[in-house]
Amino acid sequence: MPVTLTSACLPHTPMDRPPAPPTPETLAYSLTLPADPRTPAIVRATLRTVLRAHGLADMTDAAVQVTSELAACACRFSTSPEVYVRLRYREDALRVVLYDAHPRHTHPRLAAACDARRRSTLRLPACVVRACGGDWGFGDAREPGGGTRTWAVLPRAGVRAYLAGGHTKE
Around Cβ 93, how many Cβ atoms within 10 Å? Predict the structure, then answer.
């Protein structure tokens, strides 16, 4: 006797129902990009699109400024041909993390000089993050393979206040 399947008998997959529209809480993206001078432009375009899609367009100017600078720094310091970018929105804040392959120096003076150089490179995004009431930093990557993890947290309310004060990129 032949068996016929109806839609009620088939397993339901996420593709069977329309996707939920993006919300701030569903913002979670990871990108592996070349450690190349063009990468910050790719990061800026991606972030503008992602923030708009997730209803966070009000964060664009500050977030693009900070993330672009973090990407430029990661590309400048990376010892591999790639950098990794992670974007998340959690607890009313955009969290940006960049990983590059530059390892921590074992010699204390070299480590201090390298940290000072990286800190100097990140002066502008540090100012923007602080003005937004956020936090930033860099240190050893905890992932296998090591390298450096550079991150910034931009609270949405702080970004709004910062931008309302007339601080825009352009």
Answer: 22
Q: Which long-range contacts (CB under 8 A, 24 or more apart) does 132-140 make?
A: 132/62, 132/158, 132/159, 132/161, 132/162, 133/157, 133/158, 133/161, 133/162, 134/93, 134/158, 136/66, 140/104
Q: Pick the closest to residue 150 from 164, 135, 168 (CA basis).
A: 135
Instruction: Kindly report, residue by residue over 81-129, the tens digit of the pLDDT.
Output: 999 999 999 999 999 999 999 888 888 898 899 889 989 999 999 999 9
Read off φ and ψ for residue 4, nearest 5 degrees: -115, 145
Cα–Cα nearest to 160, from 134, 137, 135: 134
Alpha carbon distance 47, 25 (integer Å): 15
pLDDT tens, residue by residue, 6-63: 445 555 556 667 778 899 999 999 999 999 999 999 999 999 999 999 999 999 999 9
Q: Which tokens belong to 101?
A: 């392959």
